[in-house]
Description:
With 297 residues, this protein is of the alpha+beta class. It has helices spanning 4-13, 17-20, 156-159, 185-193, 257-260, 291-296, and strands at residues 54-55, 68-71, 83-85, 90-93, 104-107, 110-123, 134-135, 138-139, 142-150, 166-176, 203-204, 224-229, 240-245, 249-252, 286-288. It is globular, with a radius of gyration of 19 Å. One 2-acetamido-2-deoxy-beta-D-glucopyranose binds at residues 161, 163, 237-239.
Amino acid sequence: MHFPAIEDFYKRLLFxxxxxxxxxxxxxxxxxxxxxxxxxxxxxxGGSDQSPISLNAHKVIPIGLPxxxxxxxxxxxxxxxxxxxxxxxxxxxxxxxxxxxxxxxxGGLLGDFYEAMAVHFHWGSSQQKGxxxxxxxxxxxxxxxIVHRNxxxxxDEEARNQTDGLAVLAVLFKVVRSNYLHYQPGLNEILGSxxxxxxxxxxxxPAAFLTLGSLLGNLDRGNFYAYQGSLTTPPCSPVVLxxxxxxxxxxxxLELPKFWQLRDRxxxxxxxxxxxxxxxxxxxxxxxxxxxxxFWT
Length: 297
Ligand SMILES: *[C@@H]1O[C@H](CO)[C@@H](O)[C@H](O)[C@H]1NC(C)=O
Ligand SMILES: *[C@@H]1O[C@H](CO)[C@@H](O)[C@H](O)[C@H]1NC(C)=O
Ligand SMILES: [Zn+2]
């Protein structure tokens, strides 16, 4: 598709390039109206190793990836969460745990330790499902990202310039027609906060002390896809070791629409905040399965 007016607009914006990259990371201005145009301001978005991609169990390399190891994931935070509507998503920074350090992961494709920094979501609308990754050809309703930084780098800026800088855990959710709250206490706190986060830049602090692991509920943490990819928002840096869980968690049909009530910085509905699929090209996608599954198949 060709949008002459939009292209012209972005070409003119190119003159602003030196300033555009100076925005602090959570004040980057971009829109989901024309994600194909991001590359004119953020060159990595048109570059290699981009995310999201479509994951297919029949096109993976079933090598024996080690399991992920979750450190401090089930220890309480030493502070309350501050959830914020940043105009693109709902997010929070991960506090340290009562042990003074943040939860961390290693294993899978990760050769180092990666500490959890932030959590955010991608969703669709009443018309469209909004996960970013596809699993066996299906798009799901919601996708949660837990962003981790390689502890050998000192800052986000440094990590965003290294191919092993970040690790993101992705969890997909599927809407179910059930009113009962599923065993995802952390997620339920976040869902209960969304009504307070309608306006751009609004924030809210749920009154519960949570653990990062409580966002995952009873998820099978042993079964995941892994590949080398990128941030799915500008600047699309190709610095992410993705780990996408194969199990899809339930979310009630009464809860999911709460995301669609949020508004962006222009006061418009904040919906469909997922990036289109990117091509896998020559990349390898790995899948690790729980040992029990190998036993039964
Ligand atoms: C790291 O920075 C250099 C210089 O700015 C750039 O050319 C390169 O693409 C960056 N690498 C990554 C992975 O972002
Ligand atoms: C967001 O809100 C904070 C205080 O709550 C304020 O300091 C900041 O300037 C606001 N940012 C924008 C972009 O409005
Ligand atoms: Zn994301």
